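Reply to dn_fold:

You asked what the input looked like. This is it:
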Amino acid sequence: MDSAILKPGKDKAVRNRHHWIFSGAVARLPDIDDGDILAVRSADGEHLGYAYFNRRSSIAGRMISFGKTLPEDAIRESLGQALALRKAFFDPAVTNARRLVNAEGDALPGLVADLYDDVLVVQIATRGMDKLKPLLLEILVETVKPRTVYEKSDLPARREEGLEEFEGLLYGDRAGADQVDILENGLPFRVRPSRSQKTGFYLDQREMRGLVRRLAKGRRVLNAFSYTGAFTVCALKGGAARADSVDSSEAALGLAEENLELNGLPSSSGYFIAADVFEFLRSPDLDYDFIILDPPAFAKKRTDVVQACRGYKDINRLAVQRVRPGGLVLTFSCSHFIEAALFRQVVFQASLEAGRRVRILQEHRQAADHPVNVYHPETAYLKGLLLYVD
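and this is what came back:
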């Protein structure tokens, strides 16, 4: 197999088992098609592993194995380890929806796979993984035995890779892509992968929904950026006095109402409000003692960070101002480029401007089926703070 040669002194990240090789670290690439796999060697010829490469991307190479393990063997091994990890931590009789593959978190850069009961939804972000799709599909069908495999690769990151967005059925029954009912911690939810954001359901917030269920008793809850109402359901199941859902998408709110019905909760348990959250939070007569802020990523790229921080500060300032004394604010950022320390600083500034006494009770991260690779810290993206406001 042809080799990519790294520049002198530019092999430290690979030796430390980081998956990314930036274009500036590459001394020589043979004549290949973008997405092809190459052996990776140091400047003095030492074999370091295997990666797929794409000249179009600033991340020119992504490691799929370190050392001598051959690429296909490494992919099979990584998939097997990813599935075994989830099997060890989840009882399908209680929770049958989980992330099976979390990209670099499972040593499979460019691949996300979420299982909703027997419906598998995959996202492929890179040309190298796109070329490996036949092998990945073969292994996943053989090991997971899903009724449906649906690809939902509507990712902006694909443009830099020279890929068009793609969505479609890869295997099995199309009906599974249109609707599937799942269980999470014993509660039923309806998922429509082909008509939803991401792969259909925010599995990374599972533990936080459990937290809301434990804290909501007797409280008046606002679920802002509510999407399909999972936090709303958990608040009401936890005994909330009321739980209102606000989202800009009427379709998402419609599914939120269905999720309440699935759980035997009357629609009178709260209001479903189609509105801009920023404008809604500016209303002077809000009456909530628990506000949940789970917005979409405000920073899609590094150049968005300053503007994103303004947005995060605005909504957190409004929530801290509006929540009743002795109330809770559970606030999140899922923006990869907003690091945890920066998010805390934004919340500090928001609290200062709100003029309230605010204390952090807990800090949170993405659910356990979204593991963070200790050698690849970029796999940590979800940050959460539980605030107590006097």
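Residues 109 and 169 are 22 Å apart (CA to CA).
Hope that clears it up.
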